Amino acid sequence: MKSDIEIAQQATLQPILRLAQERLGIPEPALEPYGRYKAKISLDYLAGLNDRPDGKLILVTAMSPTPAGEGKTTTSVGLTDALCRIGKRAIVALRQPSLGPVFGMKGGAAGGGYAQVVPMEDINLHLTGDFAAIALANNLLAAMIDNHIHHQNELRFDFRRVTWRRVVDMNDRALRQLTIGLGGPANGFPREDGFDIVVASEVMAIFCLASSLADLKDRLGRIVVGYRRDLAPIRARELQTHGAMTVLLKDAIHPNLVQTLENNPAIIHGGPFGNIAHGCNSVIATRAALKLADYVVTEAGFGADLGAEKFIDIKCRMSGLRPDAAVVVATIRALKYQGGVDVKDVQRENLAALEKGIVNLERHVNNVRNHYGLPCVIAINHFTHDSEAELELLRRKMAHHGAAVIVTRHWADGGAGAEDLAREVVQLADSGAADCRFVYEDGETLWNKVTAVATKLYGASEVTADTKVRAALRKLADDGYGSLPVCVAKTPYSFSTDPLLRGAPSNHVLNIREVRLAAGAEFVILICGDIMTMPGLPREPAAKRIDIDDNGRVVGLF
């Protein structure tokens, strides 16, 4: 069996300039090529498309992630290829993978099998350098803060309340908490600091929510980087840094055009953390795709309780985007894992465990249909050991949920293996049945917003927090941030904050342990459980398998 990277490297790619012109009608002057198979699309050109009608937007989400795997990205790519196969003009719009997971636990993240975006190595590694630009902009702001403090501290930073951290696009637990400024007066003032991974930076979230270069600059200026002793906030614009940050991002903000294995267009742009941020590709990229195609397939990070909720309540609320249909991805093996089976045994037929685990999928489908107001289809990403008895049980159990269950084989067969899914998606998207709804309204308090998410979507009985957290929420409201949406940062592996609690737990408690303000991105982060913004490498990192052969070919990248 060929690996993902072997399949990708044997593909015949179309020159990106020709693909852009022939498939999308984009003229060569509107493209900035990065080699033969990657290009950035000019924002000026995209602005000229505003009078075109939008295509239909398809949101791909999933059941709760498991070690057994679900395959949202693979399904997103396979569905796009299938839509093109049945005669529809379609584009997939995705996030770029972070180098942390690529070299950590997951390996590559550009789809899998015969449903991939290519050039796979470039997409998984540096692509066009956007993440490096975001890291530089973030770290320029960090350097300007410490430089300002070193030179008289005219803004009166309280050293204990500098909130802006440095970033690096790698999993490195040793950088989580540091003391900087050691070595005497020439090196500044000692204080505690630390690193986050690039995808957790507020700059990344801003990058993906900005509607234009001017909006990007304005949002960067609104970043709250620290506080004075009287708890008055200090913003990036007071350091006169947001202009230079925007300069570093002026090329990165143009969306990246690549292709699928079947030579269909794909836009890869941005990649905010699915916990600490909203976990979706950029608004600019999604809007561009909607002007260039009749059907746009996009993906939200993690399950429908996290990724789809943030897609709706943050990205859609701010941008005006509205999905026309949703796809909920699941696998038989992941459902058995949710039913209590050990990951090493998920290949064996186990109807009892499958029936027990289906409750996880049922809650996600209920959330998508009844809380987000989206018609949806369930895509079962097929594995060869799935038994017909298991598939029939799943169909029977899900029959009353008003969502078709379609088995897809795009991993093995490419777009041909997802044509039934594509036809169902077209029917749903064209039906006009979508009534996209937010889980809470802008005017509700921050506390009521998170309570709505926890009780409606997670099955929690209540939300709790200590007096310090409650005071922080009250201060944010007093400072004018009470109307912002909330971004709940919790484990993706369970509806609860306990990653080991499988299925669809109910009557659990959501405890908020920390509150963070993302003033430029315009949301309030509520950290629950043991979420970290700088992951660590596992005992056996994927980096051990990644190599380059004597011919310069990358190997071992998933």
Q: How many distinct beta strands?
A: 24
Oligomeric state, counting identical vs distinct chains? single chain
How many individual helices? 19
Q: What does the average pLDDT come to?
A: 96
Q: Would you give an account of this structure?
A:
It contains 19 helices and 24 strands. It starts with a helix and ends with a strand. The longest helix has 21 residues, at 130-150. The radius of gyration is 23 Å and the shape is globular. The protein is α/β, with parallel strands linked by helices. Helix 7 runs antiparallel to helix 10 and helix 13 packs across helix 14. Strands 1, 2, 3, 4, 5, 6, 13, 14, 15, 16, 17 and 18 form a twelve-stranded mixed β-sheet that branches. Strands 19-21-22-20 form a four-stranded mixed β-sheet. The model has no long low-confidence stretch (mean pLDDT 96). Strand 11 (224-227) and strand 12 form a beta hairpin.
Task: Provide a concise account of the structure shown.
The protein is α/β, with parallel strands linked by helices. It contains 19 helices and 24 strands.
List the helices and strands and how they pair.
Elements: H1 4-9, H2 16-24, E1 31-33, E2 39-41, H3 43-47, E3 56-62, H4 72-85, E4 90-94, H5 99-103, E5 111-112, E6 115-118, H6 120-124, H7 130-150, E7 166-168, E8 178-180, E9 191-193, E10 195-197, H8 202-209, H9 213-221, E11 224-227, E12 233-235, H10 242-249, E13 256-260, E14 265-268, H11 283-292, E15 295-299, H12 304-319, E16 325-330, H13 332-338, H14 351-371, E17 376-381, H15 388-398, E18 405-408, H16 410-413, H17 419-430, H18 446-458, E19 462-465, H19 467-478, E20 486-489, E21 509-518, E22 523-528, E23 547-548, E24 554-555
Parallel strand pairs: 3-15, 3-16, 4-14, 4-15, 7-10, 16-17, 17-18, 19-21, 20-22
Antiparallel strand pairs: 1-2, 2-13, 5-6, 6-13, 8-9, 11-12, 13-14, 21-22, 23-24
Helix pairs in contact: 4-17, 7-8, 7-10, 9-10, 13-14, 14-15
